[in-house]
Design brief:
The protein is mainly α. It is built from 18 helices and no strands. The two termini are 31 Å apart.
């Protein structure tokens, strides 16, 4: 058997190939929706969508209590133990549905408050938060179901959920933006994630009798206690992170204008598209592997599998994206977005540093290293905020992207030193 055949037959290659198909499709869908948004709502509308997206990211992790990575870990460890698995499903589901319903009431009842805090414009967008309140519990449950599938190592089904969900989301987004412009874009962002529920429920029912497992008699508070460290870690990163970005974007709007904030949001959208190749593969394949690793040698092998096979491909892709940046902007957006080209170099360089550190950061979740994670995450986010505010005065919107790059490099160095025994 030659080297090519050996590579092709590996689980990583098979998952990477299907994942790449999923990511390419998601990127294509994201770019199509971005093009529609650029044409119909412009840079100012993109800035508002960025604020809502940060808010939604925070809501997602609050509603699921940041349990996703913990669910993956404990499901992976107990997938062959029926009683333990039932306890995990019932305990987490009951808690999460209560939290999601409470949050929906808060969203609906204080819609005008959220409109003022998130958008702060003369246009009334309170209806967006009322619609979000009705859709939100469905999305929260879908995130939980997807984490169960991931923990069961049903990699292909996790990827197919994303593929189908992205196609459905595109149809909703395109229709609402074309029909209702900025209002439609915001409503689409609020509603489309909830469509995942119907897809994930269909696939989870093929694997386990989910409805039979959701019983009050299976509730075990000890399961929740075990998940609390994951909750703390996820809430710090996924709530504090978007809040920091929201504060930076509002600072940009007040100092250099909403269009400049829209250019940064456009760059972040492009970045999030190609970063999907790595982040989805980390969640679907590498996190369960790290959670199962028993010693430093096994962890080291997983780290270097990532650096040898994933990092070089990503770096090659980043180089191609840089040289194609003008074409990318003109095809995907409009001429009004050409200033975004000046942000590519620092964004791409920063994302290379970020990709290097991501696999190390996942070790915090895999091994439940709560204190170390919180310290590094909080310091990193605070460093990013203050450095961004400082550099805006010297470099304008480019200063924010430069700050991200420096922050990602410092974070990589810190994690490299912290996990040096698992690396070398």
């Amino acid at each position: 058997m030659n080297l090519y055949q050996k590579i092709v037959q590996t689980t990583l290659f098979k998952i990477t190939s299907l994942n790449s198909l999923s990511v390419v499709l998601k990127i294509a869908i994201g770019l199509i929706s971005s093009k529609i948004a650029a044409v119909f709502i412009g840079p100012a509308g993109m800035a508002l969508m960025g604020n809502l997206r940060n808010f939604l990211n925070s809501l997602e992790n609050i509603s699921t209590l940041g349990f996703q990575n913990g669910i993956v870990k404990y499901t992976a460890e107990n997938k062959k133990k029926e009683q333990e698995l039932q306890k995990i499903i019932a305990s987490v589901f009951i808690i999460l549905i209560l939290v999601a319903l409470i949050m929906s009431v808060v969203l609906y009842g204080f819609a005008s408050f959220w409109d003022n805090k998130i958008f702060n414009t003369q246009t009334d967008y309170a209806i967006v938060f009322k619609i979000l309140a009705l859709a939100f519990p469905w999305y929260a449950v879908s995130v939980f179901l997807l984490a169960i599938l991931n923990g069961l190592s049903k990699f292909k089904k996790v990827i197919w959920v994303n593929i189908i969900g992205n196609i459905a989301a595109l149809l909703v987004i395109a229709f609402l933006i074309v029909q209702f412009k900025t209002m439609g874009a915001l409503v689409a962002a609020a509603v489309s994630p909830s469509l995942l529920f119907f897809i994930t429920f269909y696939f989870i029912q093929q694997e386990i009798p989910f409805l039979q497992a959701v019983r009050l008699k299976f509730f075990d508070f000890q399961i929740i206690k075990k998940l609390l460290p994951y909750s703390v870690m996820a809430l710090f990163s996924s709530v504090l992170g978007p809040v920091i970005f929201l504060l930076i974007r509002n600072k940009v709007i007040s100092v250099i204008g909403i269009d400049q904030a829209g250019f940064w949001e456009t760059m972040l959208r492009i970045s999030s598209s190609y970063m999907l190749f790595v982040t989805t593969l980390l969640t679907v394949y590498f996190l369960p592997k790290l959670a199962s690793a028993q010693n430093n040698e096994q962890t080291k092998a997983i780290f270097w599998q990532y650096y040898k096979f994933i990092l070089p491909v990503f770096c090659a892709g980043v180089v191609m994206i840089y040289f194609a940046r003008f074409i990318i902007i003109q095809i995907l957006f409009t001429k009004a977005f050409l200033p975004v080209s000046g942000l590519f170099f620092w964004q791409l360089l920063g994302d290379v540093f970020k990709v290097c550190s991501l696999i190390l950061g996942y070790q915090f979740f895999a091994k439940k290293m709560t204190k170390a994670f919180i310290v590094t995450e909080v310091l990193s986010l605070l460093f990013l905020y203050f450095l961004s505010i400082y550099l805006i005065d010297f470099f304008g919107i480019q200063g924010v992207v430069i700050a991200q790059t420096i922050d990602n490099l410092v974070y990589l160095i810190v994690l490299g030193l912290y996990f040096r025994k698992s690396l070398f």
